[in-house]
Specification:
With about 200 residues, the protein is an alpha+beta fold. The chain contains six helices and seven strands. It is globular, with a radius of gyration of 17 Å.
């Protein structure tokens, strides 16, 4: 995920036209119940980009930013594309869909390179809601009461502003073992065939 985050920073530099530095990547693998609190206020508004995960591991992907970070990202893109003099109202959420698409694609490529998994994502769908509402939707879609979530928290520095994003992988239960086995095999290869 750290490798993927570095590639995301490079991709965002190209998209935004500003230098994007990676500040920190934090990874949490947790039961679903603790995810909303890790992101922020469960009743706070967020923008979420949802994608279906298909291939060797099936499930769902979410790219989530809080309302404050959503506005910062949209403003940066608008200034980059239109110039500050032509700054618009900041309501064009297609920007976030494209960023979510980039983030998902880069992280899935990193998983392929590191673990040998062939995973792809569907066309992104945008949603604006409370954190808990978006996550509850994920449970309904996944058809499980207590899914396991891989939560990647990334923080980028863009034009002296810190922008925090969250990338969620929610694999279906029947694909958890495939994911775990591939990570174990990659780890074993890194350690010359030995594990701790």
């Amino acid at each position: 995920m750290s490798i993927g985050g570095g590639h995301v920073a490079g991709a965002l530099t190209q998209l935004l036209g500003y230098e994007v530095d990676m500040k920190v990547t934090k990874l949490h693998i947790a039961p679903f119940a603790g995810v909303a609190a890790a992101i922020g206020n469960p009743s706070g508004p967020v923008a979420g980009v949802r994608m279906e995960m298909v291939g060797d591991v099936k499930g769902y992907l979410y790219f989530i930013v809080t309302d404050e970070n959503k506005k910062l990202l949209i403003e940066l893109v608008e200034k980059s594309l239109l110039g500050a003099a032509h700054h618009t109202s900041g309501k064009d959420l297609s920007v976030l869909m494209e960023i979510g698409n980039i983030v998902a694609g880069v992280h899935l490529v990193s998983l392929h390179d590191f673990c040998g998994l062939n995973i792809y994502h569907s066309v992104p769908v945008m949603a604006i809601d409370m954190i808990q509402a978006l996550l509850d939707e994920a449970i309904v879609i996944a058809g499980r009461k207590k899914p396991l979530v891989v939560l990647v928290q990334e923080e980028f520095i863009i034009v002296r502003k810190n922008i925090r994003t969250f990338f969620l992988l929610i694999p279906f239960a029947e694909h958890l073992q495939t994911l775990a086995d591939s990570i174990g095999a990659a780890r074993k290869k890194m350690h010359g065939g030995k594990t701790d």
